[in-house]
């Protein structure tokens, strides 16, 4: 059996919502309970994959029911949560940075091992108020890196191993080329701040058709475009043909809509496919 890692690069803003409001935000994004990191729940991703296959193959196609199962019969592939790996953050020093932290990298390393993929990259260990960037990155000629309202001391380190392992999760060559110059690794605690408070909040409104006055104003949170997630597809016996079918479909149409707000263009991700070796689970 070959487990698979799906790379999901946000092409538009994402809104994997939750039913619970949080403070002044009426519709926050879903977060992991412990770490507070934005997450696309496995059930939501599985539903998006099913909708993707149904639109191409048809709702009653046997390949769809075999993959996802029926109410009384489980499907042949387990779909995990899509986990955050890189989060864009505004920078006063230059173009935005993709920030991540040692914990997310360690988790990605373990997930690659589970999928039977090589995981030999070294995880940087930034100190507090320090950002590790790739050796040779200019950073505007400055020793400090400004992310949102926080200032970090820059430490340069060879991150080519990390960048090579990220590249397989990104469909576009142009985006892969930007990774060395825009990647920044910060501490777990400081990354948690960006994950909790660094997302965009949009105001939306419903107007009365006649008076044009507000009938309903609400605030909703979104995950920015260019955020990078990944998820595992773990096969069960008999899943080889089903996974091959899904891979073929993504080869023809490598984009997937996940989460809410599809009618306002949100939730679109480009998809890549990393397949582990036989027996990697």
Secondary structure tally: strands:
16
How many domains in all? 1
Biggest pleated sheet: 12 strands, mixed
Main structural class = alpha+beta
Which regions contain 5 or more consecutive residues with pLDDT less than 50?
none
**String of helices and strands:** EEHHEEEEEHEEEHHEHEEEHEE
Rg on CA atoms, Å: 20 Å
Q: Helix proportion of residues, in percent?
A: 25-40%
Mean pLDDT, to the nearest integer, reads: 89
User: How many helices does DSSP assign?
Assistant: 7
Instruction: Give the CA-based shape.
Output: globular
Distance between the termini: 8 Å
What share of the residues does DSSP label as strand, in percent? 25-35%
Pfam family, one: RAMPs
Protein name: CRISPR-associated Cmr4 family protein
InterPro entries: CRISPR-assoc_RAMP_Cmr4, RAMP_III_fam
Keywords: Antiviral defense
Walkthrough of the structure:
One of its GO terms (biological process) is defense response to virus. Keywords: Antiviral defense. The protein is of the alpha+beta class and 281 residues long. It has one domain. The strands form 3 sheets. Strands 1, 2, 5, 6, 7, 8, 9, 10, 11, 14, 15 and 16 form a 12-stranded mixed β-sheet that branches. A two-stranded antiparallel sheet has the order 3-4. A two-stranded antiparallel ribbon has the order 12-13. Strand 3 and strand 4 form a beta hairpin. Helix 1 runs antiparallel to helix 2. The radius of gyration is 20 Å and the shape is globular.
State the main characteristics.
281 residues; alpha+beta; twelve-stranded mixed sheet; two-stranded antiparallel sheet; 7 helices; 28% helix; 30% strand
